[in-house]
């Protein structure tokens, strides 16, 4: 295997995945840059796990092409050992101890770090002699994380693995992930519908919505795209005219509108003169607005919904 230090990239070209009548992914084209931490975000059922499963070569797409480090991963002896896909459900040998599971995985992963595995086992207080079937949900998730991070695979996909962890364990996971990523650059994909906690980790963001790509962008520019505009109703209405309005709330004569689209030169001065306050929008809020099923059109401006009035 030619594991690079900067990780493997992923490309999907016109990928469709059907399960009978269900179209889980619909003509998806996107790139995951090598050597980045990418957030694979989307509401329940949006197709995140399906996409991850295709990249990990668990199945072949109904149509389109999946490329991992430039090659089709399906039954690919070079690529498959370099892709580590950890699901919350956990793909472990339930009748074997954690220690035996670690031995099994390390044998299949040339990049596996026993040192990091040991550190993480201690951090999450996992006893090597225990069997996965005897672990609590949180400890099971933690063990998945041990396998995922210690594998140091050039492409690691962690699918909702942190959801079962309590808050201290989640923060320990985020810190360890960042520290290890800094020392051992690779491609990490974190799938989640809970964004507030992981957003500080993300360099790139892919948002899926009902099987389609809604956003694929670097996190910094996506953050800069969301602007909260607050002030007197008429002034705000004039200021946001021609912009993509994601949501509007009214409180008496004051209106708070969330718009998508980076500020342009002169906006800050114009806002100040009109008595308008401009502020950032958390990625989580932007995600909620973008994936709102009542939202029409991804790029056009729209009038506030009735419910907003
Ligand atoms: N094996 C399957 N058979 C039939 N339908 C499936 C199968 N796996 C997924 N689906 C359907 O495909 C769609 C996408 O599911 P997927 O699990 O990929 O979404 P997700 O974004 O990972 O969801 P969640 O956040 O709830 O885990 C859903 O409508 C789901 O019901």
Structural notes for this entry:
- It is a single chain.
- With 309 residues, the protein is an alpha/beta fold.
- It has helices at 48-55, 98-108, 114-123, 137-150, 167-183, 219-225, 233-240, 267-273, 283-290; strands spanning 10-19, 22-32, 37-42, 63-68, 83-87, 155-159, 187-192, 204-209, 212-218, 226-232, 244-251, 254-260, 277-280.
- It has a 6-stranded mixed beta sheet, with helices on both faces.
- α3 (114-123) runs antiparallel to α4.
- The radius of gyration is 22 Å and the shape is globular.
- The model is unreliable at 297-309 (pLDDT under 50).
- Adenosine-5'-triphosphate (ATP) binds at residues 19, 22, 24, 42, 44-50, 193.
- Pfam families: ABC_tran.
- This is ABC transporter ATP-binding protein.
- Residues 10-235 form the ABC transporter domain.
- Keywords: ATP-binding, Nucleotide-binding.
- GO terms for molecular function: ATP binding.
The share of residues in extended strands comes to 25-35%
Number of helices: 9
Q: How many beta-strand segments? A: 13
Q: Strand order of the main beta sheet, please?
A: 5-6-7-3-8-9
What structural class is derived from the secondary structure elements? alpha/beta
Straight-line N-to-C gap:
58 Å
Explain briefly what this protein structure is.
With 309 residues, this protein is α/β, with parallel strands linked by helices. It has helices spanning 48-55, 98-108, 114-123, 137-150, 167-183, 219-225, 233-240, 267-273, 283-290; strands at 10-19, 22-32, 37-42, 63-68, 83-87, 155-159, 187-192, 204-209, 212-218, 226-232, 244-251, 254-260, 277-280. It has 9 helices and 13 strands.
